[in-house]
Amino acid sequence: MIEIFKHANYDFLGKKWLFIGLSWLLILAGAVSVAWRALDGNDNTHPFNLGVDFSGGTIVNVKFREKPDLGRLRAAIEQQGIEGPKITLQPVGDEIGQAPKNEVLVRLPNLVNVQRREGQSETSAQSTDSADIGKQKIRAALDTLTGSAVTQGKTDLNAVGRDSLKEALLTFDPLGLRAGGATQSAETRYGEIANRIIDYREKDRGGLIGSVDEVKNLSGIEPQLGDALSKNFYTSAAAIRGAGAVSPQIGAELRNRAIYVTFAACIGMLLFIAFRFKSWGFGIGAVIAVFHDVLITLGIFSITQLEIDLTVIAALLTLVGYSMNDTIVIFDRIREMMRTRRREGLEKLSNDAINQTLSRTIITSGLTFLTVVALVLFGGAVLKSFSWCLFIGIIIGTYSSIYIASPFMLWWEGRKGSKVVPAEAPAAASPAATQRLVSTAAAGGGQGRRNARKGKR
Amino acid sequence: MNKNLRTRCIVIGAVTLVSLIFMFGPWNKEKNYTRTASDFFSPSKLKKNLGENIRLGLDLKGGTHLVAQVQADDYIKAITEGNRQKAVDTLKKGNIAFTDVKVPTNGQLVVETADDKAQSQIKDKLQADFGPDWDVTTRSNPYQVAFNLKTSSADRLRKEATEQERTIIEQRINAFGVAEPVVQLRGREEDHQILIQMPGIDDPERVKRLIQGDAKLEFRAVVPPAQLYPTKEAAEATIQGQGDKEAMEVTEPRAGRAPLQGWYVVEKTPVITGNELRNAQGVPAQTGAGYNVAFSLKPTGAEKFSTWTGANIGNLLAIALNDKIKSAPSIKGQISDNGVIEGSFTKEEADDLGLVLRSGALPAKIVYIEERTVGPSLGADSIRQGVTASIVGLTLVVLFMLFYYRLSGVNAVVALILNLLILLAGLAMFAATLTLPGIAGVILTIGMAVDSNVLIFERIREELRAGKIVTSAVDTGFAKALVTIIDTHVTTIVSAGFLYLFGTGPIRGFAVTLVIGLLANLFTAVYVSRTMFIWALNRGGRRAETISI
What we know:
The structure holds two protein chains of two kinds. The longest helix of chain A has 33 residues, at 346-378. Chain A contains 16 helices and ten strands. Chain A is 61% helix and 9% strand. In chain A, the strands form four sheets. Chain A has a four-stranded antiparallel beta sheet. Chain A has a two-stranded parallel ribbon with strand order 1-10. By secondary structure, chain A is α/β, with parallel strands linked by helices. Chain B is α+β, with helices and mostly antiparallel strands. Chain B folds into three domains: 3-60 and 375-541, Multidrug efflux transporter AcrB transmembrane fold, CATH 1.20.1640.10; 72-152, Gyrase A, domain 2 (2-Layer Sandwich); 217-361, Gyrase A, domain 2, CATH 3.30.1360. Chain B has 15 helices and 19 strands. Chain B has helices at residues 3-24, 38-41, 43-53, 58-61, 72-93, 119-130, 151-176, 204-212, 232-237, 299-311, 347-359, 376-429, 436-465, 470-502, 505-537, and strands at residues 55-56, 63-70, 100-102, 108-112, 134-137, 144-149, 182-186, 193-199, 217-221, 245-254, 257-267, 272-273, 277-284, 291-297, 317-321, 324-327, 338-345, 366-374, 433-434. In chain B, the strands form six sheets. A four-stranded antiparallel beta sheet of chain B has the order 7-8-2-18. Chain B has a four-stranded antiparallel beta sheet with strand order 3-4-6-5. In chain B, strands 12-9-15-16 form a four-stranded antiparallel beta sheet. Chains A and B meet through strand 6, helix 5, helix 6, strand 9 and helix 9 of A and helix 11, strand 18, helix 12, helix 13 and helix 14 of B. Strand 9 of chain A pairs antiparallel with strand 18 (366-374) of chain B, so a sheet runs across the interface.
C-alpha cells in the first residue's frame, strides 16, 4: 500500500501556543482591514465588498459586439447622473476554449428612494421607486454609447423576446402573409421565424447578433425576409444578458437573515455535539474552531475585497458543516481511546488521536480541495466568490480542527474537573503507580479496570 | 454466492433500476402526449426525458424573478378619499350643516361644522354609511366629528388588497402563456410582497408593463355640437362653470395620415366604464394594417349602452383610455352589447390592452423591489461551466482514489457513481430544482462522499497494520467508521437544513442537492461498498488472504 503518515507521531499539541498565536495574527489582520476601511473617511472604501444581494443596487451583464472601451462606457453611465466612483465595471473573464466574451459586469449602488414611517423597520419600509432604475439608466447609457437607431421606430433584434418578435413581425408583415385575412397561418409562420432567429441569437451567438445581415442567410427563413427586416429591425451593439436589481429593503432582509442563520447553525451544532459527546467541552471546542474559521475567512474577504453575495453565505455554512466534520473525526477518535486508555491523560490521547487520524484528514481535505480547485478554475464568474470561500475555508478548517478545537476542548475539560480525565496525566508522573495498575488489571481482567477506577490498589 | 450477498445484490440492483427509471423515464410530458415504446428505449428520447425530468432553476434555464410590493397604504388612501366624497354627498343630501370634510392623514376623516347641534346628526348619519370598520369620536370640540379607521380593519383591508392583487397578477400572467409560473405571497403579512417567477421569459419589460398596466377605460359622451378645439383653453372656454363637463385631449391615429389632434368637450360622468366589460380582446383590423380591441358588455352595461346609443344617434362617443381620447366615432345606430375600439394598435398593444381590460383594475399600485433576469444564453453558459467543473472534479478524485487505494479505489469509484445516480434520481423524484449552486453542491457531494470511503479504508488499513486478518479488518473498519460517518453526515445535513430555511431559490437548490447527496451517500458508502468487499473477499468460494487497499 502507498501510505502517507504511516506512523505519524508529531507533537501537535505541544506547540499549540505557537499556532494559536498564528491564528490570532490572522484574525487581527482581518480586523485591521475591516477597521481601516470602515474608518478611513473615504465613502468609497467599504470593510466588505457586499454584493447587490446585501447592499442593494444593480448589477447588469452586458455583452458588446467588440471589446468594450471601459472609459467611454463609464463616461456614458456618468452622463445618466451617477457619480463616477460609484460605478463598478468588471470585465468577465474569457472561458478556456470559447470565443472571447467581450462582456462587462456593471454595478451600480442603490438609487432607490425608500420611505419609512416612524417606527417602521428597514425591511418593511416602502419603496417609492422600482428597483430597476439602475438597469434603465444603464440601458439608456448603452443606447447613447452605441448610437442606437431607437428613435427611428425600429425594433432591436438583440433586446426583443420571442413573443414580442413574433408580434412585431405580424404587425409589420414583411412577407405580406396577412394578405387576404390569412392571419392564423401568418401567425404560425412568423412564430417559427421568430423562434429560429432567437435560437440563433442565444445558442450560436451568445446573446448578441452582429448585424441584421447575419439573419438573412439563416436556414429555414425565406431569403426575401432579410431585406424586409432591415426596414423595421436593427441590431444594437450591446445586449443585456442578465440583470439583478435589489432594493434596500430586500438587501436589509437578506443581511439580517444571513447573520441569524449563521448563528443559529453554530448554536445548533454546539447542542448536537454536546449531546453526542455528553460533555460541553467538546461542543465548545468545535464551535470555537468554527467561529475561528468564519472570522478568518471573512477577514481574508475584507483584505482581498472579494464580493460577498448570497452564494458566499451558502459556502460559509458549508464550511461550518465541513469544519465540524473534521473536528468530529478527531473527537470521535479521542472518545474511542478514552474507553481503553483513560488514564493516559486527555492531552496525550488528543495528540495520539490527531496523529492517527492525520492520514484521513489530509486525504479528505485534499480530495475536497481538489474538487474546489475544479470549481475555482472552471466554475465561472457566478460561482467565483463561492469557490474562493470554500478554497480558503477548507485550508483554514482543517488547520483549526487540529490546532484550535482540541486545545480549547482540553482547556475547558481541564478547568472544570469534569467526569472526563484531567488534562495532566497522573500516570506520567508516577511509573510505580502505573505498574501496579497494570498488574491489577491483568489479574482481574475487565474487572480490574473497574477496580482501578474505583481507586482500589 | 451466499444468501446475504445475494440479498444485498438484489437490493442494490433494485435501487439502481428505480433510479434509472426516475431519471430517464418519460414522466414529465404535457397532458396530451401519447407515450410510445421508443420513449423508453431510444437514446435521443431518453436524453430528452432527462432534460425534462430534472427541473432547472431560473439561473440555469433563464427567466425572470420579481418581487412586487403592493403599496397597500395607497389603497387605504383611496378608501379614505372615497369615503370623504361619500360623506360630502350624504351630508348635502341630508341637508346637514357642515363646513368641511378634512383628511388629516390616511384613515382619518374630520367633519367640521359651524353648528354644534349638528354633531350627533353627523355622527349617526355617517357612522351608518361608513360601516363597522370606522370608529367615531366626538371630541371635546363640539364643532368636529372625527372618524378613524380601526387598525385591525386597516390591516385587514391591506391584506385583502394584497391578495386581490396577487389574484389579478396571476390571471394576467396565466393569460400571457408562461410555463409553470409562480405567483405567491412572500414574507411576513405586513410586508405586502408578491413573488413572481416566470421561467423562460426573455422579455421582462413587457411582462412588467402588463402586470403594472392599469387601463382606465371610459366611454364619454361628447357634448353636442361636437367640435374639435385646437387648444385646451379654447375647449374650456365653452364650459363656463358647468360642473358636469370637462375638456379632454384627443389623439386619434389615422392610417396613412397624421393623427387627429385636438380637444373635445365631454361629459364628466362616463356612459360606460371598464368595470362593465364582459370581455375584451385584440383582433386584426378589418381594413389596413394594425389591430383593434373588440369588446362586449355585461347585461347592465349593455342596457345602459343601448339606451344611450339609441338616444344619441349622430352624436360622437369618445372612447377614453387613461383620460386620453383614443377615438371618437359617431353613433350610427343603436348598439347593444359589443363594439370595437379602433386605435391602430400593434398586435402586442391590442392583446395586452385586451388582457388588462379583462382582468380588472389593480386596487393599489405595485413597485418592484427585486428583479433578477437571466437570459437563456447566460443560463446555458452557467450549465456548461457547472458541468465542466463537475467532470474535472470527478476525474481528479477518481484518479487519486485508484492510485492510492488500488482495487479498493475501484470500490470507492463505483460507490461514487451510484451515489451521483441516486442523487440525480432523487432530484427528479422530488421535483427539486437544480440551480447553479446546486451543481456546486453536487461537486461538494463528490468530495464528501469520498470522505466516507476514505474513513473506512484508513480504518481497514490500521486494522491490517495491527495484524488482524483481512475479513476481520474489513468488518472492524466498517463498524468503527460507521459511527463517525453518521456523525459527520448529520452535522452537514443540519447546516444544510439551516441553509434551506434561510435561502431563496438558488441557495435552497444547493441545500436540497447537498442533503439528497449525503443521504444517498449513507447508502452507497456503507451498504454498497460493504457488499463489494464481501463479494471480493469471497470470490471463488474461499476466503481471501489479502486485499488490495
